[in-house]
Each structure stands twice: as structure tokens, then as C-alpha cells.
Amino acid sequence: MTLYSRITGTGSYLPPRRLTNDELAAELATQGVETSDDWIVERTGIRARHFAAPDVCSSDLGVEAARQALQAAGVLATDIDLIIVATSTPDMVFPSTACILQNKLGANGCAAFDVQAVCSGFIYALTVADAMIKTGTASKALVIGAEVFSRILDFKDRTTCVLFGDGAGAVVLEASDTPGILASDLHADGKHVGILCVPGHVSGGNVLGSPLLKMDGQAVFKLAVGLLDEAARTTLAKAGKTAADIDWLVPHQANIRIMQSTARKLKLSMDKVIVTVDQHGNTSAASIPLALDFAVRSGKVKPGELLMLEGVGGGFTWGAVLLNL
Ligand code: UT7
After folding, report:
1. CA pair distance 253, 247, nearest whole angstrom
2. Would you state the torsion angle of the CA atoms of residues 228, 232, 238, 241, taken in this order, to the nearest 10 degrees?
3. Looking at the structure, do residues 135 and 202 belong to the same domain, yes or no?
4. Any bridge partners for residue 319, and if so which?
5. Which pLDDT score, from 0 to 100, does residue 2 have?
6. How many Å apart are CA 63 and CA 12, to the nearest integer?
7. 110 catalytic, yes or no?
8. Which residue's CA is the nearest one to ligand 1's atom 21?
9. Of 119, 161, 255, 280, catalytic
10. Do 183 and 242 touch, CB atoms closer than 8 A?
11. Domain count, the chain
12. Is 252 tagged catalytic?
């Protein structure tokens, strides 16, 4: 009897247009918005981000990451029976980005849906896929985080537009007799809706309210640090493990200072933390699978090691997944 789900392949994709902080600052200066490489690096650790071309959607990025993950797992698209896409920047209002991606991939017929939990989206999606595999509803799932946050950035707001980037990451999650995903922990608290949101909505053919991202950075920062620590500890306790057992922490890549604080609280050396925020910026739901794939492909993270994945984002949502790779 299958008791577990296990990641058997990872993949990722970044759109080719890469902007360093200096390049972004120069572009923003032409619109009278002042920022600098020094400020961005010191406050966030970000040095560069990728932006998708105007005609490229989340499904385009996601399908490339999915193809890589399938290849790494040695699984055919036609063998996939579940696709979950975590995104807050869907191609359309509906149908889901997962359906659009499924068709591009040639996996037609399998279950496909989106999960909307902003920067915790991949943690939510992975937990849902794990549960569906454990209950026998699916056996080979593609779990994808894909975002084009550049579309919802206000390039006149320097407090947010320097933070985010576009990209996608994916994993193949398969039924397994050996673990796999050991434990997960999901939470949300809707009373914090206003501190990180895109408040606009479509109504009668118009967009009502702003369709651009708004964030109270300091409020998000303070909440994130405490909630990530709590989620990590609860997840470890569920699996009967301690922080000392963790081989790698793969956190949501929003700000290096949040990652340093999380590591400090868990008494983990930064050598055990996968960091890609410097090169990718914050890619929301894509950031964790992107970081995971980079860590796997660089040879840093190896099969059998114990990984803590954790994220926090708009909603407020937060959660963690502990797994053996
Ligand atoms: O993915 C979802 C989770 N999101 C996050 O985790 C983000 C969490 N928050 C953060 O990462 C940080 O709060 C920020 C990076 C957004 C901001 O860092 P901070 O240390 O909290 O800076 P601050 O908001 O206190 O701003 C400090 C100063 C302000 O100037 P004054 O009032 O001190 O004169 C800002 O106006 O920095 C100024 N500032 C900038 N200066 C140059 C804000 N943005 C910029 C900028 N360039 N891009």
C-alpha cells in the first residue's frame, strides 16, 4: 500500500530578460523614481530579477519548468494525473492557469486546478497534492509555482517595484512506499488582507480598484519572521524531528534578512539555507520550487536529505513542508 508521496524530479524556468539593480534603477530614474543598488542590496539582498516579455504568461513559464521536472523524473506528460498551479498572476480570470498549462504540456484529461495562496502558494499546492496522493486520488502529480509579478507592479512605487521578479518552478510528486513528504502545516489569517494585496477586481467590463500590488513592508516583515518560525517548529514536531535534523532550509525568497532571522531562530547556519533571492528577487509562489531546483541542479541538495520548505505571503497565508528528497 502506498503511504507516501515523494518528489522525483524538479525543474525551473526564468524568462531571458534579466535586470540588475543598476539597470532597473536607471529605468526607474527616467520616470522620476529614485532608488539604488546599495539600498536594494542592503535592505533585501536582491541584486537582479527576471521580467517576462509582455506576451508571456504564467502558463508559458510554468510549462517550461514542468517539462524540466518531467524529464528529471523520467515521467511522460501523458502519465501525469494531477496538475496544481500555484499562482497569483493567472493567465486569465478563468479558466485556471493549470488548464491552460495542461493543454500546452499535452497532459489533457488529468485533473488540473490553481491554488491561490500568494507567496505560500507552492506550500499549499504541495500539501494538497500530497494529500491527494495519500488518499489514492492521484499518483503522479505536477506541482508548479508560476508568476509574472511584473504585470502587477506599480513602477512608480519604489517600496515594492524593486522587490519582485518573474519565473516558475515545478516538481513531480509521485506515490511512493518510502517517505517523501513527512509533515506539513498550513495557516491563514484573513484579518491581514490589507497589508499585502492587489485590491482591484473586474466588474462590468472594467477593473474596479487598483490592479497593482500594495504592501506595508514593515508589517509584512514583522509578521513573516514570527510565523515562519512557528510553522517550521510545528512541522518538525509533527514529524518527530528537531531543527538540528534539517539538512537544508528552502524558504520563500522575499528578503535575505527574513531568511537570516528564520535561520537564527532555528539555530541553523546560513550555510544550510538555500538563497536565490539575490538573483531572482521575490517570485512569489515560484520562489520555493525555483530555489529547490537551483539547489538540486547545482548538486548542493542531494537525494535522501531532509528539507524544510516554508513560505509566507498575502492573505495572510503561511506554512511549511518537511520532506526527504
Ligand atoms: O513575499 C511576501 C512577503 N514580502 C515580504 O516579506 C516583504 C517584507 N518586507 C521587507 O522586505 C522590507 O520591509 C522592505 C524591503 C519592503 C523595506 O525595507 P525596510 O527596511 O522595512 O525599509 P522601510 O520601509 O523602513 O524604508 C526605509 C527608507 C524609507 O525612507 P525614510 O522614510 O527613512 O526617509 C523609504 O522611503 O527607505 C526608503 N525606501 C527606498 N529608498 C530607496 C523605500 N524603498 C526604497 C527604494 N530605494 N527602493
Report:
1. 18
2. -170
3. no
4. 186, 311
5. 63
6. 9
7. no
8. 218
9. 119
10. no
11. 2
12. yes
